[in-house]
Design goal:
- With 434 residues, the chain is of the alpha+beta class.
- The protein is built from 13 helices and eleven strands.
- The protein has three domains: 109 residues, Alpha-Beta Plaits, CATH 3.30.70.1050; 104 residues, Chitinase A, domain 3 (Roll); 144 residues, Orthogonal Bundle (Trigger factor, domain 2), CATH 1.10.3120.10.
- The two termini are 64 Å apart.
- The model has no long low-confidence stretch (mean pLDDT 92).
- The chain is flat, with a radius of gyration of 33 Å.
């Protein structure tokens, strides 16, 4: 087999291959025998069809099968004998195959560029000073108060803003979403004991106004028009007819912020002690965020120092990782990504610049890992698995088993080495608080 590699660009190679005619003939012969055992041709018993007739009758299929067998193996063999590693599956083109002739084809593929990280002890990074004001503490205390609130039943008055209402609800789309080709009404959906907080941001537009003034036992019919940019795509631009019955009305009652509240919130001696703990927690969280900003500043500067062309496959992989990350976040919020009013292709394009910078910084970090000979211990792996287990509420053994599937340990090791490289860079950087 003849092979030739041609460098097209810094991160793209072309492989030209010629497979000898006798290898092609041997493969044709094998596949012909397979066809001969199963082919049904009038006038011949199965397995008794002449080989030349099989070749003539199934010529195109045979040549296709031979190419499917020989081309991938030839690519693998050629790459195995080289020092090149494709980032993604090579793109095979111009396959020429005929009986009695060599099989020829081209395959193009992307490789990692050669990266020289240069000097990396001269970064100047800015850190935002941490300061927690009284207003931030008050807002955090309000959140504690809200979480400790209770819902008390109300009788004898109408629904007001801020009430929590329990409804039986029937909803039917009378106008389909803007992106639907079907404008007919849908079958009604029945929902029992639906809890709605009047004034909550997630309520459909205009829904609260239809409920305010009603009382327990009342029924009502109304139609809601959803805006074209509504976040749930299955309702964007649609109209829905509602039939509702008010079953219960409750009012959120906030506890008094006093000494008893402080003790119930965590056995604090008094309210001042609780406020001090809240302020400490806010300060610690602000410090974490400030350090994260410094880290992001470092990665941005690091990415800016790599100016070589990048493999498109790596950028696409990073974009798709971000798409999957957003989809998982939405599912965790009980939002179906397929119904969210998001143009996913537009989102992918919006992520391209950030994804490109992420690839650049990753390549630089990998080059630094190599130069500094950064390694991991078994304890490093164990600690990371235990950290993930604690964060997810799963057993460390279950986390390890999940990670070890599909080469996950390799990805984990790469990520931890990059984190060590970041720590190294931060230790050598000048950090200015301003």
């Amino acid at each position: 087999m003849k092979t030739d590699f041609t460098k097209i660009s810094e991160c793209r190679q072309e492989l030209s291959v010629e497979i000898p005619a006798d290898t092609v003939e041997q493969s044709i012969e094998r596949h012909s025998k397979g066809y001969g055992r199963t082919a049904k041709i009038p006038g011949f018993r199965p397995g008794k069809v002449p080989a030349q007739l099989i070749r003539a009758r199934f010529r195109e299929q045979l040549l296709h099968d031979v190419a499917q067998e020989l081309v991938p193996k030839a690519v693998d063999d050629a790459l195995a004998s080289s020092t090149l590693t494709p980032i993604a599956t090579p793109d095979v083109q111009d396959v020429n195959i005929n009986e009695g002739q060599p099989l020829t084809f081209r395959a193009t593929f992307e490789t990692l560029p050669t990266v020289d990280p240069g000097r990396y002890d001269d970064f100047t990074l800015r850190k935002t000073p941490v300061s927690i004001d009284e207003d931030a503490v008050n807002k955090a205390m309000d959140q504690l108060q809200l979480r400790a609130s209770r819902l008390d039943p109300i009788e004898g008055r109408n629904i007001e803003h801020g009430d929590t209402v329990t409804l039986d609800l029937e909803r039917r789309l009378v106008k389909q979403p803007a992106d639907s080709n079907n404008d007919s009404s849908t079958e009604p959906e029945q929902h029992r004991d639906v809890s709605v907080e009047i004034g909550h941001a997630s309520n459909p537009p205009g829904f609260d106004e239809k409920l305010i003034g009603l009382k327990v036992g009342d029924t009502s019919s109304f139609t809601i028009a959803f805006p074209e940019d509504y976040e749930v795509s299955s309702f964007a631009g649609a109209k829905a007819a509602y039939e509702i019955e008010v079953k219960q009305l409750r009012l959120r009652v906030l506890p008094v912020l006093d000494e008893d509240f402080a003790k119930q919130a965590g056995d604090f001696e008094n309210l001042a002690a609780l406020r001090a703990k809240v302020e400490t927690d806010l300060s610690q969280q602000a410090e974490i965020e400030a350090k994260s900003d410094v880290r992001q500043d470092l990665l941005r500067q690091l990415a800016g120092r790599l100016t070589t062309d990048l493999p498109e496959a790596l950028i696409v992989q990073e974009i798709e990782r971000r798409v999957e990350q957003l989809a998982r976040h939405m599912m965790n919020q009980n939002i179906d990504p397929r119904e969210a009013n998001i143009d996913w292709n537009a989102f992918r394009e919006q992520q391209r610049v950030a994804a490109t910078d992420a690839v650049r910084s990753t390549l630089m970090l990998d080059a630094i890992v190599s130069r500094e000979e950064i390694n991991l211990t078994d304890e490093d792996i164990t600690q990371e698995i235990e950290r993930q287990a604690e964060a997810s509420g799963r057993a460390p053994s279950a986390v390890r088993a999940f990670i070890e599937k599909d080469g996950g340990i390799h990805r984990l090791r790469s990520g931890l080495k990059r984190e060590k490289a970041i720590d190294l860079l931060l230790s050598r950087s000048t950090i200015v608080t301003a």
